[in-house]
Design goal:
The protein contains 21 helices and 8 strands. It is α/β, with parallel strands linked by helices. The protein has 2 domains: 390 residues, no CATH class; 134 residues, Transcription Regulator spoIIAA, CATH 3.30.750. The strands form 2 sheets. It has a 6-stranded mixed beta sheet with strand order 4-3-5-6-7-8. The protein has a two-stranded antiparallel ribbon with strand order 1-2. Helix 2 packs parallel to helix 5, helix 2 crosses helix 13 and helix 8 runs antiparallel to helix 9. It comes from Caenimonas koreensis DSM 17982. This is STAS domain-containing protein. InterPro entries: SLC26A/SulP_dom, SLC26A/SulP_fam, STAS_dom, STAS_dom_sf.
């Protein structure tokens, strides 16, 4: 019975918490919590939510997610990309931090969580392939630049937006000092003292200095945060118009969040030498988002950096996440008054340094060397994300559409080559390698792809065009091993070609046809016996027979 339940409740497979395990998991939990708590508060501002909801997102959603996920060391909570997607998706629909805004954010969490839950339950994780690596690279880098730009005013104490830099800028000297000092400290610690809890130290020292100097009494600080655990929350119905405006952002949040999760979960699976259960992790991510909505918070995701910290700080099970959420509970119950003195410039520094790692120009250079179409996809995604800001989700959607269009183009235009025998004994592109004909009056070809409705037209055209240009051809050999599927359209084209060959007295040779394809052709009657049809199980057998075709 437990085995059956553990399929749906993965936490039942966790080991019993003994003293040794408790020690190692507690160390990992503290290590992650000192990074997660300041980041959670900072990322809440990106989502346009009250800062305390960042702590709510680090509590119940993280706990629910780890209980239902197959990967137990994913750090679920606020993340930069998901938070900025939330904040930018709702601009123009409501006022940030208002009751209507919070309700719309909760509906975003319900929709995106429901999408992930459904995909995971149906084991349809192939949907994640819709967002390719180039699309995610282009989007994440553009989003990172937009996030940094949004944090610059708070970071340097600028009153107003970035436009004020060109028109009599007014700066808060103390905020500027807090912001720059924290950025320098975080970067220095990251390079020379990576094990130091720099974020916690920077936030704590900044809050202490702001309190002692009196800056917190008049400057831009976090302010009073409500103490206590989140109350159950159900968002009011926003109406069909606003609900319709949430569908595309929710889909993009679900896809981006799933890919953030996948990047961390695959590392954990490789580390443990186990198979990654994508469906179960999607269920956990979806459940976490729904828990976020029901606690008045915003959609959560997996943080790659915090998940790496969890894994390499010695965490062995999901107990580390349970303990880290217990630390968040303590903060919510006792320590929220200490956060009110923290300058917003210090929080901006946390965000800027965290997302700066997403800006990787060399990634685009590497893509250009690998595949210029994929590099162009990344560049277009990057550009559309910047141009359509704040509706940055259109960058992802554009990238997905370009990727699908490229995929469809390749399916409609399969690689079809005329083959020749290379000196190394392999069959290769005759024209690329300047190889002689396999035999006189022979057209030997190979198609790398399925013979279906998408490729059949190109397959037929290639043969017809070649025969029209070479009327002396008396034999056609299809090296069919790469063809692993054929549909009705493919069968119709095959039959039409056979009739054409017979009308012209051309003999068809088929080599290496796969059994599933052969069975479809046999059931359709396309492989009827004829002196003008010869079939060979292997290419070697076909080459021996083709060596003698000129003798007949």
């Amino acid at each position: 019975m437990k085995t059956d339940l553990s399929r749906w409740l993965p936490f039942l497979r966790w080991p019993r918490l003994d003293a040794a395990l408790l020690r190692s998991e507690t160390v990992a939990a503290i290590t992650v919590a000192v990074v997660m708590i300041p980041q959670s508060v900072a990322y809440a501002s990106l989502a346009g939510m009250p800062l305390v909801t960042g702590l709510y997102a680090a509590f119940l959603p993280a706990l629910i997610s780890v209980l239902f996920s197959g990967s137990t060391r994913l750090s679920v909570g606020p993340s930069a990309l998901t938070s900025v997607l939330v904040g930018t998706s709702l601009i123009g629909l409501a006022e940030p931090m208002s009751g209507n805004w919070i309700a719309l954010v909760a509906w975003l969490a319900l929709l995106s969580g429901g999408i992930q839950l459904a995909i995971g339950a149906m084991r349809a994780d192939w949907v994640l392939n819709l967002v390719s690596s180039p699309v995610l690279a282009g989007f994440s880098q553009a989003a990172a630049l937009l996030i940094i730009a949004s944090q610059v005013p708070a970071l340097i104490g600028l009153h107003g937006g970035l436009a004020e830099l060109l028109n009599a800028p007014s700066l808060d000297a103390m905020a500027l000092a807090f912001g720059i000092a924290n950025v320098v400290f975080f970067l220095a610690a990251k390079r020379w003292l990576p094990s130091l809890p720099a974020v916690l130290i920077g936030i704590a020292v900044s809050g202490l200095v702001a309190w002692l100097s009196g800056y917190s009494a008049h400057g831009a600080v976090v302010g009073a945060l409500p103490a206590g655990l989140p109350s159950p929350y159900w968002p009011a119905w926003p109406g069909w118009t606003q609900m319709g405006a949430l569908v595309v952002p929710a889909l993009v949040i679900a896809l981006v969040s799933s890919l953030e999760m996948a990047s961390s979960a695959k590392i954990e699976s490789q580390h443990d030498g186990k198979r990654w259960d994508a469906g179960q992790d999607l269920i956990g991510q979806g459940a976490g988002k729904i828990a976020a909505a029901l606690s008045g918070s915003f959609p959560t995701s997996t943080s790659f950096s915090r998940s790496a910290i969890t894994l390499y700080s010695g965490a062995r099970t999901g107990w580390a996440t349970v303990l880290s959420t217990a630390i968040v509970v303590v903060v919510l119950l006792v320590l929220t008054p200490a956060l009110q003195h923290v300058p917003r410039a210090a929080l901006a520094a946390v965000v800027v340094v965290a997302v700066a790692g997403l800006v990787k120009p060399r990634t685009l250079q590497q893509l250009w060397r690998i595949d210029r179409v994929e590099a162009s996809t990344a560049l277009v995604t990057f550009a559309v994300t910047i141009i359509t800001a704040p509706r940055i989700y259109w960058g992802v959607m554009t990238g997905v559409l370009i990727g699908l269009a490229h995929f469809l183009y390749l399916r409609l235009h399969p690689r079809i080559i005329e083959t020749g025998l290379h000196p190394d004994g392999s069959l290769r592109d005759r024209h690329l390698w300047s190889l002689p004909l396999l035999a006189p009056h022979l057209y030997a070809l190979r198609m790398d792809g399925e013979l279906d409705f998408a490729s059949a037209s190109s397959f037929e055209r290639a043969i017809v065009d070649h025969l029209a240009a070479h009327p002396d051809v008396r034999h056609v050999c299809l090296f069919a091993q790469p063809i692993n599927r054929i549909d009705t359209t493919g069968v119709e084209v095959f039959l039409r070609l056979r009739k054409m060959f017979e009308s012209q007295g051309i003999k068809l040779h088929i080599s290496g046809i796969k059994l599933p394809v052969e069975r479809v052709l046999e059931r359709s009657g396309a492989l009827y016996a004829s002196p003008l049809l010869a079939m060979y199980r292997t290419d070697a057998e076909a080459l021996v027979a083709l060596a003698h075709v000129g003798e007949h």
